Amino acid sequence: MSSAPNGKILVVDDDPELTSVLEAGLTQYSYQVDTVHDATLGLIRLYAFQPDLVLLDAPLSGKDRWDMLRRIREVSEVPVMVMSVLDDEAIVSRGLDLGADDYLTKPFGQQELLARVQAVLRRTRLPPSEGRKVLRFGGGELVIDPTAYRVTVRGEDVKLTATEYRLLLHLARHAGSVLSYDQLLDRVWGPGSTPRLATLRMAIGRLRRKIEADLHEPRYVCNQRDYGYYLSRD
């Protein structure tokens, strides 16, 4: 997809000064950057530019960008990082529930932005060395096909974000073993990111809603109280 050395990034923010700063900073590190100040134009550029990552502003009011995030998830698995001036759990939860892969609070420094961008791209680009064996659980009801980047439950395709898929795949490759919160945060979000335990819990909640038949008694993604999560082998 990418023609730039480090990747292509689409920035959607209604602050021209900020988009100029982001473009200059990311271009300096060999990213190809396209910027728009409107959600509708953002969707048009998404198709034309084919980015490796979208940086999406989350406004204090209005639904345009949430609608854009929802539309992105209907047509693409491109990772999305939401930016907001508020470090508010409700905004974080809203963005993650709609399919965002990470969250960045304004104002932020160039080095923090670069580290977070690198972490998102690193974890959403599975290296060729990772195993490609099809994984089956629950008597074959849950199937994970790393080669096709596909997850099915009882024969139906399940649409996961890049982070949700990475989380499920990591749990599946260690099925039966309890992975601590810190292990999952480090392995799935990456050492260059700064996620919180609440972010992990929200991601687990979204994943369960997509693959579990009963959220009150999860069959696949189980938890070890006050320690971590594991994927059941059964």
Entry summary:
By secondary structure, the chain is α/β, with parallel strands linked by helices. The chain is built from eight helices and twelve strands.
Structural summary, described in words:
The chain starts with 7 loop residues before the first strand and ends with a strand. The protein has 2 domains: 8-124, Rossmann fold, CATH 3.40.50; 135-231, Orthogonal Bundle (Arc Repressor Mutant, subunit A), CATH 1.10.10.10. The protein contains 8 helices and 12 strands. The strands form 3 sheets. It has a 5-stranded parallel β-sheet with strand order 2-1-3-4-5, with helices on both faces. A 4-stranded antiparallel β-sheet has the order 6-7-8-9, covered by helices on one side. The protein has a 3-stranded antiparallel β-sheet with strand order 10-12-11. The model has no long low-confidence stretch (mean pLDDT 84). With 234 residues, the chain is an alpha/beta fold. The protein has helices spanning 16-28, 39-49, 64-75, 89-97, 110-124, 162-173, 181-189, 197-211, and strands at residues 8-12, 32-36, 53-57, 80-84, 102-105, 135-137, 142-145, 150-153, 156-157, 179-180, 221-224, 228-231. The chain is globular, with a radius of gyration of 18 Å. A hairpin with a 4-residue loop joins strand 6 and strand 7.
Question: Which strand order do you get reading across the main beta sheet?
Answer: 2-1-3-4-5
Q: What is the correct CATH architecture of the largest domain? A: 3-Layer(aba) Sandwich
Percent of sequence in beta strands:
15-25%
Shape summary = globular
| Overall CATH class of the largest domain | Alpha Beta
Residue share in helices?
40-55%
Described by strand count, sense and barrel closure, the largest sheet is:
5 strands, parallel
DSSP summary: helix tally: 8
Question: In whole angstroms, how far apart are the ends?
Answer: 38 Å
CA-based gyration radius: 18 Å
CATH topology of the largest domain: Rossmann fold
| Strands, count | 12
- Give the overall pLDDT as a whole number: 84
Order of helices and strands: EHEHEHEHEHEEEEHEHHEE
- Backbone structural class: alpha/beta
Count structural domains: 2
- Looking at this structure, what is the CATH superfamily of the largest domain? Response regulator
Q: Poorly predicted ranges (pLDDT <50, ≥5 residues)?
A: none
